[in-house]
């Protein structure tokens, strides 16, 4: 569900820090108006970034073709589960375990 709030830019100016915090919640955005007309929208960076990525994907015909093909293959049952894939590739139950390196620092060596 999207939580849209419309307020004037003048009112938004008074509450900008509260608004900036509120739009961090998923689906929350504000429309700012000037003279009663929509002027701009404020949303979280994460929501904006996600929206732009979606638009980029949807505007790429090759990617959309690949997505459609994958959906059709899935409907026909032409897929393998992660467990099946691990078995096919010979990975044991601990093959995908991650370890935290803690405070160890990594440094790239420079060529002289």
Strand content: 15-25%
CATH class assignment of one domain: Alpha Beta
Structural class: alpha+beta
Strand order of the largest sheet: 1-2-3
Shape: extended
Low-pLDDT segments, ≥5 res = none
Cα-based radius of gyration, to the nearest Å: 24 Å
Helix content: 40-55%
Task: Describe the model.
- With 112 residues, the chain is of the alpha+beta class.
- Among the domains are: 3-47, YefM-like fold, CATH 3.40.1620; 60-90, no CATH class.
- The chain contains four helices and three strands; from the N terminus they run βαββααα.
- A three-stranded mixed beta sheet has the order 1-2-3, with helices on one face.
- Helix 1 links the parallel strand 1 (3-8) and strand 2 (28-34).
- The mean pLDDT is 87.
Provide a brief overview of the structure.
With 112 residues, this protein is an alpha+beta fold.
What features would you highlight for this structure?
112 residues; YefM-like fold; single chain; 3 strands; alpha+beta; three-stranded mixed β-sheet; 17% strand; 4 helices
Detail the topology: elements first, then pairings.
Layout: E1 3-8, H1 9-22, E2 28-34, E3 37-42, H2 45-58, H3 61-75, H4 82-89
Parallel strand pairs: 1-2
Antiparallel strand pairs: 2-3
